[in-house]
Amino acid sequence: MYFFFSALLVLSLIDLKFFILPDVITIPGIGLGLISSLLREGITPLQSIVGALVGFLIPLGIYLYYVKFRKMEGLGFGDVKLLSTIGASTGVYGVFSALFFGSLIGLLFALPSVVKNRNLQFAIPFGPFLSLGCFVGILIKDRVLSFLLTA
Question: Given its phi and psi angles, is residue 119 left (phi above 0), alpha (psi -120 to 50 degrees) or beta?
Fold first, then answer.
């Protein structure tokens, strides 16, 4: 997991500076996540495959919707590959925690700018928020799962 979180940190820094998530990191990350599931405890190969697929297909739907109907990118394709990398390494839980916590943190980050400028027409790199959301989700996984099972 250290290599995974190190890759997320590197991707976040690149995305913050250049607004890209390089394929040279995300695509091998998917493969390494799938392969490492054969050797690790805590995630089975099936969970890794399903996580990679969910991490790819859900954001791909969002990406395609925005491109087709809104004529803009609401989510970059690098974010799609990043979420697939997250899914391959952490399973479906990691994808949903990255999306939920990442969106929440991103909203808290962008809200002052929206209020100040009264405008929603700006771009922020979403990769760092997805990465942080995944990290937070993994840190509190036991608490989240126990809450969901008792609710």
Answer: beta
- Angle subtended by helix axes 2-18 and 77-90, to nearest 10: 170
pLDDT at 113: 80
Contact between residue 137 and residue 101 where contact means Cβ atoms under 8 Å apart = yes
- Whole-prediction pTM: 0.92
- Contact by Cβ (8 Å): 63, 99: no
Name residue 41's amino acid. Answer: E
Sign of CA dihedral 19, 56, 114, 135: negative
C-alpha distances out from residue 90 to 21, 82, 85, 121, 122, Å: 19, 12, 9, 33, 31
- Other CB atoms within 10 A of residue 67 CB: 14
According to the model, what pLDDT value does residue 112 have?
86
Q: Which amino acid is at 95?
A: V
How far apart are alpha carbons 38 and 20 in whole angstroms? 30
* Nearest-angstrom CA–CA distance, 42 and 89: 10
**Burial group, residue 32, by CB count within 10 angstroms (0-12, 13-18, 19+):** middle
The two tokens of residue 25 are 């990191």
